Amino acid sequence: MSLEHSILHAFQQHYGAEPTILVRAPGRVNLIGEHTDYNDGFVLPLAIDRATWIALRPRSDRRVTVHALDFGASDTFDLDALTPQPGSWADYVRGVAWALGQHGYLLGGWEGVMAGDVPIGAGLSSSAALELAVARAFGAVAGWPWDAARMALIGQYAENRWVGMNCGIMDQMISAAGVADHALLIDCRSLETRPLPLPADTAVVVLDTATRRGLVDSAYNERRAQCEAAARYFGVKALRDVTAAQLEAAQGELDALTYRRARHVISENDRVLQACDAMAAGDAPALGRLLDASHLSLRDDFQVSNRELNLIVAAAQAHPACLGARMTGAGFGGCAVALVTDAGVEDFVAQVSADYATRAGLTPRVYVCRATDGAAIIR
Question: Which of 44, 52, 163, 207 could join 116 via S-S bond, C-beta 3.0 to 4.6 A?
Fold first, then answer.
């Protein structure tokens, strides 16, 4: 049974009736452009065919009840008396309701069942998928028009201000605005987007290391603070505004750690723009080389990789069907992404899985991904 049919059946079982609304919002994998979004830079993610689904029906009051199949738990709250639920999936639902209210959106109550197949904590943006699915649900109930960029900002606002995760805009933006069969160049300053077709005869493969990290408690916020300190040194709003030549000229005046953090962000922005040129030209090998270079920068300059990510990237790069691979997501665990020739995907998955299991002593989960559209009302 598909996830869509499972959630419809679960709603019927839970509430004794058919839902009137079904929404979904996808997770994402970032092809290239890591730790650039909160530096006002460029990113190149794609929305993937794994998503959070909510089946629901409106209520006549301002009460929201959600049953989460994946957690076997329910949450009920009043839109006029929102309180945090720290550490719980329910905190994201409440946070989006709060953020929408803070931005003046009319909200109505509803009851629903929620489920998803975006791996949690793997760097595939399960939290953004949840946030945008909830935003879609509230929008469908109240009837206001969908503005992808605005809803992405509201999802980010909820995660920053309510949940306490100091994330950038990329995850919410691609979940809101993804385009089927394309990656989406996002300018994280202007929120302008440009869809770029994935190279012909290639597949995007996500390699889950089976290691997890908690972003709120990790070094993510520390890296962000280091980038902000570097921007202050140059007297600019963000590292987006610093060139490689300016950074090189200041090397003797910056401490070594700040220099390396800034070098990653500045060079990664350049790699994203080069990746767009490669995709526009249909040059898959050039795109793959940029992925390899991105991983080295994340590993050595930004220092957000770990043993398992390095092992799985090395195993991927060693396979003849792999054009390039790198860690993806915030790091410290989670997933890698590889660009692989269509003809070699099956053997790639089998060989890399076996090699990683032998070297790391862990069983990876591997997903051959299809790029999908962003958050939508299915019915």
Answer: 52
Same domain, 169 and 300: no
Same domain for 277 and 176: no
Q: Distance between CA atoms of 64 and 57, rounded to whole angstroms? A: 10
Catalytic, out of 37, 91, 117, 171: 171
Q: How far is CA 329 from CA 39, 89, 105, in A?
A: 15, 20, 31
Dihedral class, residue 205 (left if φ above 0, else alpha if ψ from -120 to 50, else beta) = beta
pTM of structure:
0.90
Per-residue model confidence (pLDDT) at position 216: 42
pLDDT digits (tens, 9 = 90+) for 246-274: 999 999 999 999 999 999 999 999 999 99
Question: What's the token pair of residue 257?
Answer: 């750690």
Looking at residue 213, its pLDDT comes to: 65
- Angstrom distance (rounded) from CA 312 to CA 208: 9
The boundaries of the domain holding residue 360 are 198-369
Q: Does the active-site annotation cover 171?
A: yes
